[in-house]
Amino acid sequence: MNIHSYEKIWLVVAILLIVGFISTVTYGATAVGIDMVSDDGGTVNASALDEDPRFSDPRVEQVGDNEYEAYVVAQQFIFKPDPITVPANSTVTFFITSPDVIHGFEIVGTNANTMVIPGQVAELTVNFNEAGEYGVLCHEYCGSGHHTMEGSVVVQPEDEFENGGAE
Amino acid sequence: MGSALETGTPSFVDRFPQEASVVKSALMSSFIALFLGAIFGLIQGLHRTDVFRVLDSQFYYTVLTAHGVLMVVSFTIFFLVGVFTWAVVRSLDRPLEDIRYTWAWYGLMVTGTLMAVTAILGGFVPSSGLSADVLYTFYAPMQAHPLFYGGLAIFIIGTWLAGADWFRSWYNWKQEHPDERIPLQTFMVLTTMLMWYIATIGVATAVVVFLLPWSLGLIENINPLLTRTLFWFWGHPVVYFWLMPAYLLWYTVLPSISGGRLFSDPLARVVFVLFLLLSTPVGIHHQYLDPGIAEGFKLIAMTNTMFLLLPSFLTAFTVVASMEHGARQRGGRGLLGWLRALPWRNPAFTGMALAGLMFAAGGFSGMINAGMNINYLIHNTLWVPGHFHLTVGTASGLTFMAGSYWLWPQLTNKPLFSRPIALGQTVVWFVGMALMSNAMHVMGLFGVPRRTAEPQYQGFDFVASFGSITELRMQLALGATLLFISTLMFVGNIALSSGSPTRSGLGKPIRQPLSPAADSPEVLDNLKLWFGIAMVLVALAYALPLASIVSGSGIVDRGVSAAPMLIEGVSGLSPIAVVSDAVSRVGVVIAGVLV
Amino acid sequence: MRDASPGGTLLGSAVLFVILWETRSALGLVAGVDTNGAAYFIASVLFVALVAFGLSVGLFQVSAMIFNERRS
Question: What is the domain range of residue A62?
Answer without folding.
Answer: 39-165
